[in-house]
# Entry
Amino acid sequence: MKVSIIIKALNEEKNIVRAIESALAAVAKVGSGEVILADSLSTDRTVDLAHQFPMRIVQLINPQDRCCGVGAELGYRIALGEYVYILDADMELDGDFLVAAVAALDADPSLGGVGGVIEEMYITNAEFRRRTEDDIFKFGEVDCLNMGGLYRKSAIEQIEYLTNRNLHSYEEFELGLRLRANGWHLQRLNLQAVKHYGHTDTSFRLLWRRWCGRYIWGAGELLREAWGKPYLRAALRGVVQYRLSLVVGVWWLSLLLSAIGGFYHPLGWWIFTLLLLVPLLFGVFRRKSLMDGLYMVVSQNLHTAGVIMGFFSARRGDPAQSPEFRTVK
# Structure
Protein backbone atom coordinates (compact mmCIF):
# COMPACT_ATOMS: atom_id res chain seq x y z
CA MET A 1 0.00 0.00 0.00
CA LYS A 2 1.40 3.40 -0.98
CA VAL A 3 -0.26 6.00 1.27
CA SER A 4 -2.06 6.18 4.60
CA ILE A 5 -3.89 9.47 5.23
CA ILE A 6 -4.44 10.03 8.94
CA ILE A 7 -7.22 12.50 9.76
CA LYS A 8 -6.99 13.66 13.37
CA ALA A 9 -10.23 14.99 14.82
CA LEU A 10 -12.00 16.21 17.94
CA ASN A 11 -15.58 17.44 17.56
CA GLU A 12 -15.30 18.28 13.87
CA GLU A 13 -18.79 17.38 12.61
CA LYS A 14 -18.88 20.60 10.56
CA ASN A 15 -15.70 19.72 8.67
CA ILE A 16 -15.17 15.97 8.79
CA VAL A 17 -17.11 15.00 5.64
CA ARG A 18 -15.17 17.48 3.51
CA ALA A 19 -11.85 16.22 4.92
CA ILE A 20 -12.73 12.55 4.36
CA GLU A 21 -14.02 13.07 0.83
CA SER A 22 -10.89 15.01 -0.14
CA ALA A 23 -8.66 12.31 1.39
CA LEU A 24 -10.45 9.49 -0.43
CA ALA A 25 -10.24 11.40 -3.71
CA ALA A 26 -6.51 12.00 -3.15
CA VAL A 27 -5.90 8.31 -2.44
CA ALA A 28 -7.75 7.44 -5.66
CA LYS A 29 -5.39 9.72 -7.61
CA VAL A 30 -2.35 8.02 -6.11
CA GLY A 31 -3.86 4.65 -6.91
CA SER A 32 -3.10 2.82 -3.66
CA GLY A 33 -3.88 3.81 -0.11
CA GLU A 34 -6.19 4.08 2.87
CA VAL A 35 -7.85 6.75 5.01
CA ILE A 36 -7.82 6.53 8.82
CA LEU A 37 -9.81 8.68 11.24
CA ALA A 38 -7.98 9.11 14.55
CA ASP A 39 -10.61 10.50 16.91
CA SER A 40 -9.84 12.02 20.30
CA LEU A 41 -13.19 11.01 21.84
CA SER A 42 -15.46 13.43 20.00
CA THR A 43 -18.79 14.12 21.70
CA ASP A 44 -20.54 15.31 18.54
CA ARG A 45 -21.42 13.42 15.30
CA THR A 46 -17.85 13.26 13.94
CA VAL A 47 -17.52 9.48 14.24
CA ASP A 48 -21.10 8.81 13.15
CA LEU A 49 -20.58 10.79 9.94
CA ALA A 50 -17.30 8.99 9.25
CA HIS A 51 -19.00 5.57 9.47
CA GLN A 52 -20.59 6.00 6.04
CA PHE A 53 -17.19 6.08 4.29
CA PRO A 54 -14.80 3.22 3.37
CA MET A 55 -12.15 3.94 6.00
CA ARG A 56 -10.81 2.77 9.33
CA ILE A 57 -11.63 4.55 12.60
CA VAL A 58 -9.67 4.44 15.85
CA GLN A 59 -10.48 6.37 19.00
CA LEU A 60 -8.81 7.29 22.27
CA ILE A 61 -10.01 5.55 25.41
CA ASN A 62 -8.91 8.10 28.01
CA PRO A 63 -10.03 11.74 27.55
CA GLN A 64 -7.02 12.94 29.56
CA ASP A 65 -4.82 11.80 26.64
CA ARG A 66 -6.28 14.49 24.36
CA CYS A 67 -3.67 16.80 22.83
CA CYS A 68 -2.40 17.85 19.41
CA GLY A 69 0.38 15.28 19.56
CA VAL A 70 -1.86 12.23 20.05
CA GLY A 71 -4.16 12.12 17.01
CA ALA A 72 -1.58 11.46 14.33
CA GLU A 73 0.18 8.94 16.57
CA LEU A 74 -3.05 6.92 16.91
CA GLY A 75 -3.37 6.63 13.16
CA TYR A 76 0.30 5.84 12.68
CA ARG A 77 0.02 2.86 15.02
CA ILE A 78 -2.27 1.05 12.56
CA ALA A 79 -1.16 2.64 9.24
CA LEU A 80 -0.22 0.21 6.47
CA GLY A 81 1.05 2.67 3.87
CA GLU A 82 4.62 3.21 2.76
CA TYR A 83 3.99 6.93 3.34
CA VAL A 84 1.72 8.59 5.92
CA TYR A 85 0.03 11.98 5.64
CA ILE A 86 -1.10 14.01 8.67
CA LEU A 87 -4.36 15.85 7.90
CA ASP A 88 -6.36 17.94 10.36
CA ALA A 89 -10.12 17.39 10.18
CA ASP A 90 -10.68 21.06 9.31
CA MET A 91 -8.55 20.74 6.16
CA GLU A 92 -9.25 19.75 2.56
CA LEU A 93 -6.46 17.82 0.85
CA ASP A 94 -5.43 18.48 -2.74
CA GLY A 95 -5.00 15.21 -4.63
CA ASP A 96 -2.58 16.67 -7.17
CA PHE A 97 -0.25 17.66 -4.34
CA LEU A 98 -0.36 14.16 -2.88
CA VAL A 99 0.65 12.71 -6.25
CA ALA A 100 3.57 15.18 -6.46
CA ALA A 101 4.62 14.46 -2.87
CA VAL A 102 4.65 10.71 -3.48
CA ALA A 103 6.76 11.25 -6.60
CA ALA A 104 9.23 13.41 -4.64
CA LEU A 105 9.63 10.75 -1.94
CA ASP A 106 9.99 8.00 -4.53
CA ALA A 107 12.70 9.97 -6.34
CA ASP A 108 14.80 10.92 -3.31
CA PRO A 109 15.43 8.24 -0.64
CA SER A 110 16.98 10.85 1.68
CA LEU A 111 13.67 12.71 2.01
CA GLY A 112 11.84 12.02 5.24
CA GLY A 113 8.82 14.17 4.47
CA VAL A 114 7.23 16.54 1.96
CA GLY A 115 4.80 19.42 2.55
CA GLY A 116 3.11 22.09 0.47
CA VAL A 117 1.25 25.40 0.59
CA ILE A 118 -1.57 25.88 3.11
CA GLU A 119 -4.38 28.20 2.03
CA GLU A 120 -6.19 29.82 4.96
CA MET A 121 -9.90 30.04 4.12
CA TYR A 122 -10.98 32.07 7.18
CA ILE A 123 -8.90 35.12 8.07
CA THR A 124 -11.09 36.57 10.80
CA ASN A 125 -8.67 36.95 13.69
CA ALA A 126 -5.17 38.20 14.41
CA GLU A 127 -3.56 34.75 14.53
CA PHE A 128 -4.58 33.77 11.01
CA ARG A 129 -3.97 37.27 9.64
CA ARG A 130 -0.40 37.00 10.93
CA ARG A 131 0.07 33.64 9.21
CA THR A 132 -1.05 35.17 5.91
CA GLU A 133 0.74 38.52 6.17
CA ASP A 134 4.05 37.15 7.48
CA ASP A 135 4.24 34.45 4.78
CA ILE A 136 5.45 31.89 7.33
CA PHE A 137 5.99 29.05 4.83
CA LYS A 138 9.32 28.68 3.02
CA PHE A 139 9.95 26.40 0.07
CA GLY A 140 12.76 23.97 -0.66
CA GLU A 141 14.52 22.29 2.26
CA VAL A 142 12.88 23.23 5.57
CA ASP A 143 13.21 22.47 9.27
CA CYS A 144 9.68 21.13 9.72
CA LEU A 145 6.35 20.62 7.97
CA ASN A 146 3.94 22.65 10.07
CA MET A 147 0.24 22.02 9.36
CA GLY A 148 0.74 18.64 7.76
CA GLY A 149 2.91 16.70 5.38
CA LEU A 150 3.56 13.32 3.78
CA TYR A 151 6.18 11.30 5.70
CA ARG A 152 8.19 8.20 4.87
CA LYS A 153 7.05 5.53 7.31
CA SER A 154 10.45 3.83 7.41
CA ALA A 155 11.97 7.14 8.57
CA ILE A 156 9.39 7.38 11.37
CA GLU A 157 10.14 3.81 12.42
CA GLN A 158 13.79 4.81 12.94
CA ILE A 159 12.78 7.53 15.42
CA GLU A 160 10.24 5.32 17.24
CA TYR A 161 7.11 7.47 17.05
CA LEU A 162 5.36 9.96 14.77
CA THR A 163 4.05 12.69 17.09
CA ASN A 164 4.79 13.25 20.77
CA ARG A 165 1.71 12.94 22.98
CA ASN A 166 3.45 15.07 25.64
CA LEU A 167 2.94 18.16 23.46
CA HIS A 168 -0.13 20.36 23.15
CA SER A 169 1.41 22.06 20.09
CA TYR A 170 4.74 22.15 18.19
CA GLU A 171 4.38 18.41 17.59
CA GLU A 172 5.32 18.72 13.91
CA PHE A 173 8.31 20.90 14.74
CA GLU A 174 9.49 18.30 17.26
CA LEU A 175 9.01 15.60 14.62
CA GLY A 176 11.20 17.62 12.24
CA LEU A 177 13.89 17.94 14.91
CA ARG A 178 14.05 14.18 15.41
CA LEU A 179 14.04 13.40 11.70
CA ARG A 180 16.81 15.87 10.89
CA ALA A 181 18.86 14.67 13.87
CA ASN A 182 18.76 11.22 12.25
CA GLY A 183 19.95 12.48 8.87
CA TRP A 184 16.62 12.87 7.07
CA HIS A 185 15.67 15.91 4.97
CA LEU A 186 12.33 17.71 4.73
CA GLN A 187 11.06 19.61 1.72
CA ARG A 188 8.16 21.99 1.07
CA LEU A 189 6.88 22.13 -2.49
CA ASN A 190 5.44 25.30 -4.00
CA LEU A 191 2.12 23.54 -4.61
CA GLN A 192 -1.14 23.93 -2.74
CA ALA A 193 -1.46 21.01 -0.35
CA VAL A 194 -4.55 21.86 1.68
CA LYS A 195 -7.26 24.40 2.28
CA HIS A 196 -7.56 25.15 5.98
CA TYR A 197 -10.97 26.01 7.40
CA GLY A 198 -9.66 27.17 10.77
CA HIS A 199 -11.18 28.88 13.78
CA THR A 200 -13.57 31.75 13.18
CA ASP A 201 -13.43 32.99 16.77
CA THR A 202 -12.46 36.58 17.49
CA SER A 203 -8.78 37.16 18.26
CA PHE A 204 -9.13 37.26 22.05
CA ARG A 205 -11.67 34.43 22.22
CA LEU A 206 -9.31 32.18 20.24
CA LEU A 207 -6.39 33.22 22.43
CA TRP A 208 -8.37 32.29 25.53
CA ARG A 209 -9.23 28.91 23.98
CA ARG A 210 -5.55 28.38 23.26
CA TRP A 211 -4.75 29.03 26.91
CA CYS A 212 -7.54 26.89 28.36
CA GLY A 213 -6.65 24.01 26.05
CA ARG A 214 -2.93 24.37 26.94
CA TYR A 215 -2.05 24.90 23.27
CA ILE A 216 -0.01 27.90 24.41
CA TRP A 217 2.02 25.61 26.70
CA GLY A 218 3.46 23.83 23.67
CA ALA A 219 6.70 25.82 23.36
CA GLY A 220 7.53 25.11 27.01
CA GLU A 221 6.65 21.44 26.63
CA LEU A 222 8.87 21.25 23.55
CA LEU A 223 11.78 22.74 25.51
CA ARG A 224 11.21 20.17 28.25
CA GLU A 225 11.14 17.31 25.71
CA ALA A 226 14.30 18.56 23.93
CA TRP A 227 16.24 19.13 27.15
CA GLY A 228 19.37 16.99 27.18
CA LYS A 229 18.75 15.78 23.62
CA PRO A 230 21.22 16.35 20.74
CA TYR A 231 18.70 18.61 18.99
CA LEU A 232 18.22 21.04 21.91
CA ARG A 233 20.30 23.74 20.21
CA ALA A 234 18.29 23.36 17.00
CA ALA A 235 15.07 23.73 19.02
CA LEU A 236 16.31 26.91 20.68
CA ARG A 237 17.33 28.36 17.31
CA GLY A 238 14.17 27.32 15.52
CA VAL A 239 11.48 28.58 17.90
CA VAL A 240 11.17 32.36 17.79
CA GLN A 241 8.91 32.27 20.84
CA TYR A 242 11.86 31.55 23.13
CA ARG A 243 13.56 34.81 22.13
CA LEU A 244 10.31 36.74 22.40
CA SER A 245 9.64 35.25 25.83
CA LEU A 246 13.12 36.26 26.97
CA VAL A 247 12.32 39.86 25.97
CA VAL A 248 8.98 39.68 27.78
CA GLY A 249 10.70 38.25 30.86
CA VAL A 250 13.15 41.16 30.93
CA TRP A 251 10.16 43.52 30.53
CA TRP A 252 8.41 41.87 33.50
CA LEU A 253 11.54 42.26 35.62
CA SER A 254 11.90 45.92 34.58
CA LEU A 255 8.28 46.61 35.53
CA LEU A 256 8.80 44.98 38.91
CA LEU A 257 11.99 46.94 39.64
CA SER A 258 10.48 50.26 38.53
CA ALA A 259 7.37 49.62 40.66
CA ILE A 260 9.56 48.91 43.68
CA GLY A 261 11.54 52.05 42.90
CA GLY A 262 8.30 54.03 42.79
CA PHE A 263 7.84 53.48 46.51
CA TYR A 264 11.11 55.33 47.10
CA HIS A 265 11.01 57.98 44.38
CA PRO A 266 8.20 59.26 42.10
CA LEU A 267 10.45 58.80 39.05
CA GLY A 268 10.00 55.05 39.45
CA TRP A 269 6.28 55.30 38.65
CA TRP A 270 6.98 57.41 35.57
CA ILE A 271 9.39 54.76 34.35
CA PHE A 272 6.81 52.06 35.17
CA THR A 273 4.12 53.86 33.14
CA LEU A 274 6.48 54.37 30.19
CA LEU A 275 7.52 50.71 30.23
CA LEU A 276 3.87 49.69 30.36
CA LEU A 277 2.98 51.74 27.28
CA VAL A 278 5.97 51.03 25.05
CA PRO A 279 4.93 47.45 24.01
CA LEU A 280 1.41 48.61 23.18
CA LEU A 281 2.67 51.51 21.07
CA PHE A 282 5.09 49.18 19.30
CA GLY A 283 2.31 46.65 18.67
CA VAL A 284 -0.03 49.28 17.24
CA PHE A 285 2.75 50.60 14.98
CA ARG A 286 3.72 47.07 13.89
CA ARG A 287 0.18 45.85 13.18
CA LYS A 288 -1.32 49.21 12.19
CA SER A 289 -4.35 48.44 14.37
CA LEU A 290 -5.13 49.25 18.00
CA MET A 291 -6.89 45.94 18.63
CA ASP A 292 -4.24 43.86 16.86
CA GLY A 293 -1.53 45.78 18.75
CA LEU A 294 -3.26 45.08 22.06
CA TYR A 295 -3.70 41.45 21.02
CA MET A 296 0.03 41.18 20.28
CA VAL A 297 0.91 42.41 23.79
CA VAL A 298 -1.60 40.17 25.57
CA SER A 299 -0.66 37.21 23.38
CA GLN A 300 3.06 37.51 24.08
CA ASN A 301 2.45 37.74 27.81
CA LEU A 302 0.30 34.60 27.75
CA HIS A 303 2.76 32.75 25.52
CA THR A 304 5.62 33.62 27.88
CA ALA A 305 3.58 32.33 30.81
CA GLY A 306 2.86 29.25 28.67
CA VAL A 307 6.57 28.60 28.10
CA ILE A 308 7.08 28.57 31.87
CA MET A 309 3.98 26.47 32.62
CA GLY A 310 4.69 24.01 29.82
CA PHE A 311 8.32 23.47 30.78
CA PHE A 312 7.44 22.62 34.37
CA SER A 313 4.29 20.61 33.59
CA ALA A 314 4.18 16.85 34.11
CA ARG A 315 4.79 14.50 31.18
CA ARG A 316 2.09 12.06 30.08
CA GLY A 317 4.56 9.23 29.58
CA ASP A 318 6.98 7.75 27.11
CA PRO A 319 5.96 8.99 23.64
CA ALA A 320 7.28 5.77 22.12
CA GLN A 321 4.54 3.91 23.98
CA SER A 322 1.13 3.96 22.33
CA PRO A 323 -1.74 5.69 24.13
CA GLU A 324 -4.71 3.44 24.83
CA PHE A 325 -7.15 3.31 21.93
CA ARG A 326 -9.90 1.16 20.50
CA THR A 327 -10.83 0.23 16.95
CA VAL A 328 -14.27 1.61 16.09
CA LYS A 329 -14.37 0.44 12.48
